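Appendix B. One record, verbatim.
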Amino acid sequence: LGDMADIDFGDLLDYLALDPATRAILLYVESIHDARKFMSAGRIAARSKPVIVIKSGRSAAGAMAALSHTGALAGADHVYDAAFRRAGMLRVFELRELFEAVATLSSGQTAAGDRLAILTNGGGAGVLATDALEEHDGRLAVLSAETMAELDAVLPATWSRANPVDLIGDASGERYGKALSAVLLDRNTDAVLVMNCPTAVVDSLDGAKAVVECLESRDRMPAFTCWLGETATIESRRLFAANRIPTYETPNEAVRAFMQLVSYRRNQDLLLETPAGDADLPPPDRESARAIIATVLAEGRTMLTEPEAKAVLVAYAIPTVVTRTAADPAGARRAAEAIGRPVALKILSPDISHKSDVGGVRLDLDTPAAVEEAAREMLAHISARLPKARIGGFAVEEMVSRRGAVELLVGIADDATFGPVILFGQGGTAAELIGDRAVGLPPLNPILAG
C-alpha cells in the first residue's frame, strides 16, 4: 500500500472481507492513518475470517525507522495492541509466527480455554513445552482422577503420573493411541499436544499413525503435534499435514500455536461485546469540571493539582477521600483537626508531579501537631532541594487503610492515532519501574476490561 495516499488498510479490509477467494487476511502494519475506518473495517473482516497482524516499530528505534520509511508517526505500541484485540484480530511478532498462525487458524480447530495436556515419550521435551506454556501465559491441565486411572491401566508403572504425561522412551504406536484416547475425554483439558522424540527402539511413524487414527475416530478437542528431528520425521509430518493436524518442529512453536488459538478465540469473544450505555450512572456535573479545567488553562498550566483532580472526579460522581488544602503548616494543622483521624500530608506545587521523589509525601500522621511539624520539615526540605519550585501549600487527606488492599493506577490519555485510551495497573511509587499495566479502548464493560 506504500504511503496509502489513496487506498488504505480500511479499504483493503472492506474488500477482502467480502472476497470469497480470501480465507485469511495477513497485515504488515507500520502505522495507521484513519483509526476509525481501520477499526470499523477490521471488526467486520474479523467476523468472517482470521485477520492476523504483524506490526513493526515496537521499539523507539523501530518507530523512528518506520517514520523515515513511511512518513507517518508510529503510535504507542501498547495502544495498537489494544486496538488489534478490540477488533478481533490476532497479533504476532515474527514473520514465522505470521504463517504459523495462518496454518493453525485454518485448521478449523477452536480452543475453549488455555488448559493444555502434553503427551510425550521424552521427559525433556515435556519440560520444554511446560516452560513455553508458562511463558505464553497458558496453563497445564490438571488431569481428572478418571483420566489418571485410565492412564495407569495402559502405561508402564514408571510413567510420570502427572501432566506432562511421559509415555516413556520405548512408547509404541499402541501406547500413544491408548494414552491419547484417555486424555481426549478429560473434562479438565482444553487441548492436547502430542510430542515424539526419535529413538532407536521404536519407529516414530508408528506413533504418528496411531495419533491420526485416534483423532479420526472421535469428535476431538484441539490437538497439536511436535515430532522432533529432521529426516526421521519427514513422513510423520506429511501424514499430519495430510490429515489437517497442525504439526510443529519444536515444543515452543507448538505451544505458541496453541496460545495463538486461545488468543484468537478470546479476541473473537471480545469482538461480540457491546458495552452498555451510561443510563444507570448519575448525571455528571460537567459545568463544574469545565470550570476547573478552564481555570487551569487560564493560568497557563497543563496539569491539575491533586485537589483540582479530585474535584473533577467528584463532578463525575467518582468517590474520593476527604481532602483539605492549607496554605501553610499552621493551616495544615487545622485541616487535620477538621478531618479528625490519621491523615496523609502532600506538598502542592505546579512544578512537582512526582511528590514522593522529592520528599513531598508523609503518611499516617496521627495528630494535628505531627502534621504541622511534618509540614514545616517538608517545606524546608523541598525549598532547599528545589529552590525554584512554586509552593502552593499542602493537601491534607484522610488515611484509608484496608487489609489486603492493592494500590492501583488508573489513567486516561489521548492517543495520537486511536484517541482516548484507558490505562490500568499497579500503582505506587514503583509503578513505572514495574510496568504492570493494561491498556484498553473505551467504552469498556467488565469483560472487555478483563
